[in-house]
Amino acid sequence: MTRTTPTVLWNDSCSLKELGESIERNGAVGATCNPVIVLEVLKKEMPLWKDRIPLLVRELPQASEDEIAWRLVEEMSKEAAKLLLPVFEKEKGRNGRLSIQTDPRLYRDPDAILRQALRFASRAPNMIVKIPATAAGITAIEEATFQGVSINATVSFTVPQALAVAEAVERGLVRRERAGQDISGMGPVCTLMVGRLDDWLRVVAEKKGIAADPEIFDRAGVAVMKKAYRLYKERGYRLRLLSAAFRNHRHWSEFIGGDVVISPPFAWQERFNGSDVKVEDRIQTPVDPAVVEQLERKFVDFRRAYEEKGLAEEEFDSFGATARTLRQFIRATADLAALVRDVMLPDPDIAR
User: Fold this and answer.
1) Which of 52, 152, 265, 268 has a 20 to 30 Å separation from 40 between CA atoms?
2) How confident is the model at residue 332 (pLDDT cuts 50, 70, 90)?
3) Rounded Cα–Cα distance for residues 166 and 238 (Å)
4) What is the bridge-based pairing of β-strands 97-101 and 30-33?
5) With contact defined as beta carbons under 8 Å apart, do 129 and 100 qualify?
6) How far apart are CA 282 and CA 191, in angstroms?
7) Using 50, 70 and 90 to split pLDDT, how confident is the model at 43?
8) How many CB atoms lie within 10 A of CB 57?
9) Which of 101, 102, 81 is nearest to 29 (CA)?
10) Where are the domains of the chain?
11) Could you please report the per-residue DSSP string of 230-248?
């Protein structure tokens, strides 16, 4: 795929080992970091970080566990960004970026999101900053873009969110151009967490006792991604879509051939490499209209996700997939702080 189509691969982890292998073996040109991923990386690569956490505790004697946890996120991101810097310089900012996520607890505060985005963007020349596609996040995306930050919209599942992100980025780029500022090295993207939309519709089916062909659940996120891609191309938006939250091969294979980013975890890359799924252009092949019709007829939330005006911006935060994902990311943030707490303030009962 990375050799024969315009579709590019980003590694959905900042694990140095996995990212290095993904770059060398699979042609990855980007990667991502967030509290969930940091926790996973620590489990896999604790020998690389076990001495650094207590050192941070000593170096920052007045810092809270939250502050040290986020410093750890920054340091992991900077280390991974170094591996991608040659690609970034070769491709002049379009790829070669490390995607670092803002604190999910800030999802209602555009000013706080912006402050953190500016800080993260300054940590390395090839950072791209993940901002949630919430109502406040859309505001922050425009302002961050205007201030020269390449953004990656996250916590995004729907056509309305993808369009709101694109319009916010365009407004930011236009403002920046009018101010005489350079945009040539910027590389914004909008993530669609296709598998998480599929997950949410399965939850809805269970809650409401909806009987549906089980095959249609694997097509919901694909249908949204393909529609958003068509609209992006028709309207000439200057950012790319990114497919994330993999649940099956369609979340990769159905988007091959598009000017998009595919961002599977390394284990999924290995699975795809070992599969017999043919690498061929499918981005222009529509999802079976009968499948889309059944999804629209049975699931209000699919209609809200698929129709251009299915959600107003003020409804982004309360959409089921958004709320579930934010809650998971917030829990992971708390778990990461708890890990730091165990180093900073060991439990005396366990210590005995």
Assistant:
1) 152
2) very high
3) 8
4) parallel
5) yes
6) 19
7) confident
8) 16
9) 81
10) 8-344
11) HHHHHHT-SSEEEEES-SS
Q: Does residue 102 have a pLDDT over 90?
A: yes
Res. 351: pLDDT tops 60: no
Closest alpha carbon to 162 in 184, 188, 144, 195: 188
Mean of per-residue pLDDT scores for the chain: 95
CATH number of 8-344: 3.20.20.70
> Which of 80, 96, 99 shows the shortest CA–CA distance to 27?
96
Compute the residue count for the chain. Answer: 352
Structure tokens at 176: 């920046």
Percentage of residues in the chain having pLDDT higher than 70: 99
The Cβ of residue 177 has, within 10 Å, a number of other Cβ atoms equal to: 12
Mean pLDDT of 39-65: 89
Closest CA to 261 of 140, 130, 145, 135: 130
Q: Where are the alpha helices (DSSP H) in the chain?
A: 16-26, 35-49, 52-59, 65-90, 110-121, 135-146, 159-178, 194-208, 220-235, 250-253, 266-273, 289-298, 300-306, 320-344, 348-351
Q: CB under 8 Å to 274, separation ≥6 — which residues?
A: none
Q: What distance, in Å, lies between the first and last C-alpha atoms of the chain?
A: 55
DSSP 244-287: ES-SSTHHHHTTTTSS-EE---HHHHHHHHTS-------TTSPP
| pTM summary value | 0.95
Q: What is the pLDDT averaged over residues 253-269?
A: 96
CA distance 104 to 180: 32
pLDDT, mean of residues 196-205 = 98
